[in-house]
């Protein structure tokens, strides 16, 4: 546990040593404001809720989370510090989880800084605060799934740019798998169980209910499973890199 916490602290401090963290947070807050108040028509809807805020998160995370994850392992490989990290008295699993938790905590900080939007809707009306808390929880879980994908892919390359592009592509597939155009395509030739399986992989499908305040166990299990599976794959890939020298 101590070794994992050491990695977590090392990675978290690394984010704030460079201007990248602050630039990311500013862009994150700016885009959330634009999507909520302008595209989401926050004021003209006349409803005291944060649905215009949460409904764009799957798409915001598609482009904003990969930059957070792309450096986790790609930078270690590029600078040659991966071998040094693996010589420390720490297991590969602890290193993987420590890095992931640092990136997740950093994302949580950025998400928490959107609290003025919550204050705004509370000032203007009488929102369901339980639904808002559920929306934040679901958004954070979904961000964790995006991060786990990005962290795993960053092991595959020394280039952060390539890691970013691949992460966006893979994450995009987990978004569109729930769209009608994709399901209609599979429905035209594939058995029903396969179409349902493809739909069940979609971030949109599992986040749709949570963003309205409805927390169901299958949705929580889905995002937790996504994080677990991708972190396990991350560990396997790092072990393979170690074995290959």
Task: Give your account of this protein's structure.
By secondary structure, the protein is mostly helical. It has one domain. It has 15 helices and no strands. The chain has helices at residues 2-17, 19-39, 42-45, 51-54, 57-69, 71-79, 81-87, 92-112, 115-124, 129-154, 160-176, 180-187, 192-200, 203-210, 217-244. α2 (19-39) runs antiparallel to α5 and α10 runs parallel beside α15. The protein is globular. The chain starts with a helix and ends with a helix. One of its GO terms (molecular function) is ABC-type transporter activity.
Number of domains: 1
Question: What would you call the structural class?
Answer: mainly alpha
What is the molecular shape?
A: globular
Helix share bin? over 70%
In whole angstroms, the N-to-C terminal distance is 26 Å
- Average pLDDT: 90
Strand tally, please? Answer: 0
Count up the helices. 15
Instruction: List segments where confidence is low: pLDDT < 50 over at least 5 consecutive residues.
Output: none
**SSE topology string:** HHHHHHHHHHHHHHH
Strand content: under 5%
Major beta-sheet overview: none
The value of Rg in angstroms is 19 Å
InterPro entries: ABC-2_transporter_component
Membrane topology: Multi-pass membrane protein
Protein name: ABC transporter permease
Subcellular location: Cell membrane
